[in-house]
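note to self — DONT lose this again. spent like an hour looking for the file last time. sequence + predicted structure for the chain T wanted, 239 res
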Amino acid sequence: MKGHSVPTKSTAKKAPVKKAAPTKKAPVKKAAPAKKAPAKKAAVKKAVPVKKAPAKKAPAKKAAPVKKAPVKKAPVKKAAPVKKAPVKKAPVKKAMPPAPPKKKAKPEPKRLTASPFDTTFLEAQRAELLRQRARYTEHAESLKAEADALAAEREPGDVQFDDESGEGDTLAVQRDFDLAASAQARDAVDQIDHALAKIDGGMYGICEVSGQAIPKARLEAIPWARERVEYKVGDFGRR
């Protein structure tokens, strides 16, 4: 502060410093503020505001909204699945087994040139053939006579059998049956005569087709048989 001495450092003993009595400052009178005369402001006339005619805005025509045509999405065609052609496996050819050795054809047996049966069998067959011949001969003659008798009994006015009327002459039908049976019996007689001739010629019992012997059992059942069963003709006389 002003008025105070600054103490100095000394190695000697410091003497007590007497503080100086403070000096009284005379009060300073402030000067009265000068009154400013109010300056009269000239009245400024405000300009009358010009009314602006409101500008009529032409109503803006809203543009019609453009309708967007719906975009048709073309259907996405799915690609057809590619069918894989089945892989054909080539068939595995199996090795062919070796061909079996060809069987040698059996040589055909020689045709017999003489009856293979003994005299006793041949004589027994002769006797049976003669007995059967007499029976069939009698049967054939009896049937023929019966047919003739039926023809004689038939009167000229009798109705004969025909498809349209469905009627038939009983006598005529019976007569035709007798004539057919008589013809079969006579055929059997002819076959028996043929067998007797073969006995006489030494060729009885030989198959006329194969040249082999006819089994004895077959000859005993049908003494006039002319062939083996496998070559049988099948008619009445030739069995």
